[in-house]
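User: Rieske domain-containing protein. Structure?
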Amino acid sequence: MFLKNYWYPVALAQKVGDRPLSVTLCGEAIALYRDSAGQIHALSDRCVHRGAALSGGWVENDCLVCPYHGWQYDAQGHCRKIPANTEQQRIPFAAKVPHYDAIERYGLVWLFYGDLPEADRPPLPPLPEYDDPAWRTVQGEVTYTTHYTRVTENLMDFAHAPFTHSGSFGAASDPLIEPYKVEQLPDGLRAQTQFTKSAYRGIWKLFNRGDAPRTVTTTITLYMPCIVRTETDLGNGFRFIGYGANLPIDAETTKTFWLTVRTFFTGAWADGDTVRRSLKIIEEDKRIVETQRPKMIPLDDRSETHVAADALQIGYRNLLRQARDRGWAIAESQPADQELVPAAK
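Assistant: Predicted structure:
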């Protein structure tokens, strides 16, 4: 089940340059390109003339040019030129492709996928620390062979850390999760708990010193339908944020754009260590999440057994059901080259 009427990350902004870039969102191919002012635009990656991929073309006069017959589409998806036409021949009214509103934020390209008027849309999931000079950011991407709901739920799971991440940051000696409250947000959920701190290695040994707290406080925030922010307070003013922005490519493939933002080791010299640690944690999750069946989390209450520590995941499943019941669900069986929802107007 895909969901419309939300913002989705589709690419690292640095990858969208002079040449068009093809991405897939909820089974639909979309072409991204920059105009002469550097603004990013998004059009359906299928020419209405003969179905060729527009991403195989180029940008000319701020239009995306189809490589097959040279049809030129502007940022709103309207065809502005057909080279084979004479000056007297009009461009057909139907010569237009769907377009999508795009925003460049946090080093990512976001598309609004749905048909809500702009005034009714949810806000972009926030990460104000990205532009704060007191914080240092590194980011990347990784692809999972599973449904986006499993990846999202994994990112908001308190109880898995002592086991899945016993080789990185999880304290296997203390897996207890005290009961916690789940706060309902306008477009998501938030919860907080404390963990026993594990013995850190490498340059993170700083956090093992005598005056460092023996516990860490972790706050997880979900922004529907698949963005998760995890903030960990290590004590003594040291804070660390993991931001997982998930792209549903198709029913069995998810791309996660991950960002880690920190208030310590803020020089570039520590970025390599942060990347290595982040990728190790991701691979630990990936080994487990890709084995889960069914690949999409079941939305009925009886297919899987729940306990108190699963309160966030239960809340997530409730929100997915609510979105489905609002009519925002999109069937995953539709062909990838079929327009799934109306484009932004």
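Residues 334-345 have pLDDT under 50 and may be disordered. The chain has two domains: 2-120, 128-325.
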